[in-house]
Amino acid sequence: xxxxxxxxxxxxxxxxxxxxxxxxxxxxxxxxxxxxxxxxxxxxxxxxxxxxxxxxxxxxxxxxxxxxxxxxxxxxxxxxxxxxxxxxxxxxxxxxxxxxxxxxxxxxxx
Length: 110
What we know:
The protein is built from 2 helices and no strands. It is rod-shaped and about 95 Å long. By secondary structure, the protein is an all-alpha fold.
C-alpha cells in the first residue's frame, strides 16, 4: 500500500510539473503576443505621425509656392529642425520606454 501511495505521489508531482510547464508556456506566449501588439501599435502611430507631418509640410510648401525659394528653404530647415528635435527626444526616452514596456509585459499577475 505504501508503494502505491509513493507511486501516486510521483504521478501527482509529474502532473503538477506538466501543468506548471503549460502555465509557463501560456504566459510566455501571451507576453510575446503583447510585445508584438505593442510593436505594431507603435509602428502604426509612427506612420500616422509621419503622414501628418508630411501633409503639414506639403501644405506649407504649397501655401508659399508663390514666394521665392527662400521660403521653401526656410520651411525645409524648420522641418529638419523639428525632425532633429523629435529624434533627439525619442533617443533620450527610448530606453525608458522600452524598460517600462518590458517591465509591464514581463510582469505576470497571479
